[in-house]
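Notes from the 1:1 (GR / supervisor)

We went over the backlog. Supervisor wanted to see one worked example end to end before approving the batch request, so GR pasted a single chain during the call. The sequence is below; no edits were made to it. Supervisor asked that the structure be written out right there so they could see what the output format looks like.
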Amino acid sequence: MIFFTNILLATPSAIPSIEVAPIGVSKKIKVVLRDLKQATKIELTTENGSVLISEQTNSPSFAKLYNLELLSEGNYILRILNAQREIEQPIEINRNEVLVNVLSRRDFFLPTVFLDQKIVNVMLLNQRLTDVTVMLKDAYGDILFTEKIGAVFKLEKRYDIAALDRGNYQVVIATSEKTYYHDIRKK
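Structure output shown during the call:
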């Protein structure tokens, strides 16, 4: 049996300054990031999540020009990720240019999951107030536990896994917009 209780959630760090803009009438975009407080990953993906470009910076600022001429027409997502946040900027490539609508940018707080001896701590700032489901799976992908939680703004749970055998497990946190996977190892 798995037990849970509430715990405190740390305040996430400030959002970096982000500028994503097309360069004239071309298939090029500039990406400028400022006020980066930690390692940040920049990814360009297809709509279904296939990663086309991926790079990381440890600097407090980042600027780069991306030539997207070789990409076919369609919708793509520029993702900016650090340990606490994921920012998604949709990008549309048409025949002659790249279109960027900053009003369609989405910002997500990433969940924090850590194992403290035999207690799994799960924290999520759910700013969209969507329903949240937390699952625990074993190394074979079998679901050991599922908790469906309503539309909470701040999720803070502790799950006691003392009764489980040593080994690898996966914590899955699912909202209507995102699903996050965290691997843990019970010693």
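Supervisor's comment: The chain is about 0% helix and 60% strand.
Batch request approved.
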